[in-house]
Amino acid sequence: MKKLLLTASACILFSSCASLFGNNKEAKRPLPPPPPAETVTKPTPKEKAEGYYQIGISYLELGEIPLALNYFFKARKLTPDDPKIYNAIGLAFLKRGDLEKAEKNFRKALSLKPNFSEAYLNLGILYEQKGNLKKAREFYLKALSNPLYLTPEVAYFRLALLDEKEGNLKRAKKELAKAIENNPDYVPAYIELAKILEKEGKTEDAKVIYLKLINLYPKVQYPYYALGKLFLKEGNKKLAEKYFKKCIEVNPDSDLGVKAKLKLEEMNE
């Protein structure tokens, strides 16, 4: 009887263990499904062309013309009907001094997009370099004829430079005022306006502009150099030295930085 009870107890014990540790006869549980694989889509030719274009623009801004052209040509091969690529190629050739190839590409851009203000602007700069100021003015005005032109201040600025070359300072100031109205942060227009005021003998008004630029844009170098020259001309060597040193601090290796160093050396001779 005791043996029978022991046997029964053993069966219950092992049965409990089996339920705890699993039974090899028990059906295996199915594994959870794997997570969905991430789908990687290849860029379209248009997207690749845009990437090449942006790289080209970066090289162009650094002055690396051959590298810029290399990427622009890659972009053109993928999207041969994109006007901004031809404009960029034209700009690269313009910076290189190859006016014929530059004009060819600007005109190609305009054939694809007749109201392309940036291409008209670049053609104006090209003809200005050729010495044809009348034609340059015509292209700047065409750039401005597009009401959707995003940077009209640049065209007004270029028109002001033409007016200066022609000796019409009054009209130049009007064009610079329009540039500033369209973009109150357009520093080149302020600098050119101050230069004209200097030519007219209105040095105090010019100083006001230069000091305003220094307060708003302390990393812009020209106002320091201009103030240094003005104060030196007036015989105020202390202030002249101050602004020449400030000019050097901004960028000692630039053309203006080198000129400021020379001015200081002349003062200390």
Characterise the protein shown here.
Helix 5 runs antiparallel to helix 6 (117-130) and helix 8 runs parallel beside helix 10. With 269 residues, the chain is mainly α. The protein has a domain at 221-269. It is built from 14 helices and no strands. Helices cover 74% and strands 0% of the residues. It has helices at residues 2-21, 45-61, 65-78, 83-96, 99-112, 117-130, 133-144, 152-165, 169-182, 187-199, 203-216, 222-233, 237-250, 255-267. Mean pLDDT is 90; it is low at 1-27. The protein is globular and about 90 Å long.
Précis, in short:
With 269 residues, the chain is mainly alpha-helical. It contains 14 helices and no strands. The protein has a domain at 221-269.
Feature tags:
single chain; 269 residues; mainly alpha; 0% strand; disordered N terminus
Draw up the topology in text:
Elements: H1 2-21, H2 45-61, H3 65-78, H4 83-96, H5 99-112, H6 117-130, H7 133-144, H8 152-165, H9 169-182, H10 187-199, H11 203-216, H12 222-233, H13 237-250, H14 255-267
Helix pairs in contact: 2-3, 3-4, 4-5, 4-6, 5-6, 6-7, 7-8, 8-9, 8-10, 9-10, 10-11, 11-12, 12-13, 13-14
